[in-house]
Amino acid sequence: MLARAADNQPGSQKIQMEPAEPYISPTNGLGSWIWEYKTLDNQTCQLWNTIEIPKGAKVTKARLVMTVDNEFTLYLDGRELGRGAEWRELFVFDLTQLLTPGRHVVAVNCYNGSFFAGMLFGLQVDLAGGQKIELKSDKTWSIVPEGVRHWETLTEADPAWPAASVKAPLGGSPWWTTAPDAVNMMPSVQPLKIHFWGTSWFQVLLLVVCGLVILVSLRLMAQLALHKKERFLLQRERARIARDIHDDIGARMTQLVLQGEVAQNELPADAEMRQHLNWICEEARGLLSTMDEILWAVNPRRDTLRDFTDYVCKYAEDYLGPAGIHCLFEVGSEISTVGFELPLRRSLLMAVKESLNNAVKHSGATELHLKIHWGDDQLVVVVQDNGNGFDPAAVAAERNGLPNMTQRMRELGGRCIITSQPEKGCRVEFSVPLQHMRRNSWNWIWKGRSLPAFSTETRNDRKDETAQSHDPTKC
Fold first, then answer.
1. What is the pLDDT of residue 407?
2. What is the spatial order of strands in the sheet that 378-385 belongs to?
3. How far does CA 79 lie from the centroid of its chain?
4. CA atoms lying within 13 Å on the CB side of residue 362
């Protein structure tokens, strides 16, 4: 048969078929006009069928030709390939690149406006080796009832689906009897490129990863809540200890000093007991001073960088004044109320006190410069004097002062740099990372551990302090 070229038909590519090439004849391989058993106006008809490509076969050419009275939407394996809306014309689809070995679902959603209705369909697949597979519009098609979800991708037909009815053979009335008015070559459809993120294994892996992330997040949230509760209880206990020390032990020590002074005044000036009482009173005053430092360390309201700076400056002024050393302070403007936890400030304070003690005992300095500044998450404290200086390489190995300062800084994740030359003074620089404790806190959360015991840490620091205060070889 010859296809008549329709004139002035928009959106269609007109071709003239040659009888010497029967394969490309527009009506070659077409079936019958099929529809539901009943034909109604404004009716939707869902036609479904499958085609099987043998395993290992290679498709060399596949051509689908169809039309519907009145409108249609064509699907292959759930993918929309094209639409048409003129029963007098044929629509040709090239499926060569889409058909691969296996079962494929062909679905057509048809619509009838009024009067007669039908679908004309023909699919011919050429395989390597000369084999052919055909799918025509006939009674093998199934009618899918409305309301069935994803019917375009179902690979098996429901036995309850009725079979299509043949309304007229090819060329039968009331449709065209010789040839269509036009043949529309539909745009070539390329295979879908499925990227790795669109594959099922990747999506399953992504769901597993998301689930693990959610579980880890819930674990971290639970640990963070527990950590926050532990910190609250610890701070409350520290506040109670500070109050008890101040209200009980502090009051008793003050009373002991007053009673000693009263007893001392009642004795004759040359009495030997008067000297003993004087020594007891001085020791009690020293204990009161030490207790003030303990209260400052224990009180959670002093866990800020500004409080640490104020305390260190006041301590240096009080300590260096009786030794005749003029103290100059340089505090950076960036010092604020940022958190500065007890283990960090306690160890740094002990190191600074050691450097001040060395300056008073050994340097012979008349001036000392104390610098405190914060930058790049590092707190830097510099103690520099104009004293005699020394050769760090010549310091006796058995002395504990300098190694202790270095060890304290190393335990905090910081460093201690000592720079000195004979007759050129001494410069000691302490640097401590302020993020150190935060990293430790996250480690505790991740590993599910509780906070380190405050009493053990304080006891160890106090043991070190006692050992240093009785070390006669300290430099």
1. 86
2. 326-331, 367-375, 378-385, 426-433, 415-420
3. 36
4. 19
CB atoms within 10 A of CB 453: 10
Q: Which residues contact 152 (CB under 8 A, 6 or more apart)?
A: 75, 78, 105, 107, 109
Domain boundaries, the chain: 22-188, 212-301, 303-475
Task: Kindly report the number of other CB atoms within 10 A of residue 27's CB atom.
Answer: 20
> Which of helix, strand or coil describes residue 324?
coil
Residue 295 dihedral angles phi and psi, to the nearest 5° = -60, -40
C-alpha pair distances (Å), 118 with each of 91, 299, 339: 15, 90, 81
Interval 217-226: pLDDT, tens: 999 999 888 8
What CA dihedral angle connects 224, 226, 227 and 228, to 10 degrees? 90
**Secondary structure class of 347 (helix, strand, coil):** helix
pLDDT (0 to 100) of residue 435: 63
| Both structure tokens of 21 | 């090439």
DSSP lists the bridge partners of residue 119 as 34, 68
User: What would the pLDDT profile of 80-127 be if each residue is shown by its tens digit?
Assistant: 999 999 999 999 999 999 999 999 999 999 999 999 999 999 999 999
For residues 135, 137, 143, 148, the Cα torsion angle rounded to the nearest 10 degrees is: 50
Contact 202, 426 (CB under 8 A): no
**Distance of alpha carbon 281 from alpha carbon 260, whole angstroms:** 6
Query: Rounded to an integer, what distance in angstroms lies between the CA atom of residue 201 and that of residue 462?
Result: 60
Class of domain 303-475: alpha beta
Token output for 415: 């460093």
Q: How many CB atoms lie within 10 A of CB 206?
A: 11
Evaluate whether 372 touches 331 at the Cβ level (below 8 Å).
yes
Cis omega (within 30 of 0) on the bond before 169? no
Q: What is the pLDDT of residues 236-267, one digit of tens each?
A: 776 777 776 766 676 777 777 777 777 777 77
- Encoding tokens for residue 247? 């209200």
Find out whether 420 and 396 touch, Cβ atoms under 8 Å. no
Mean pLDDT of 338-361: 84
| Sign of the dihedral through C-alpha 131, 137, 142, 143 | positive
One-letter amino acid for residue 257 of the chain: V
Measured CA to CA, the distance from residue 384 to residue 420 in angstroms comes to: 10
Q: Which DSSP state fits 268?
A: -
C-alpha to C-alpha distances, 319 to 135, 233, 437, nearest whole angstrom: 103, 35, 30
- Which residue type does 289 have? S
53 in Cβ contact with 101 (< 8 Å): yes
Burial of 370 (0-12, 13-18, 19+ CB in 10 A): buried
Contacts 24+ apart (CB under 8 A), 264-273: none
Q: Is it true that domain 22-188 has CATH number 3.30.420.40?
A: no
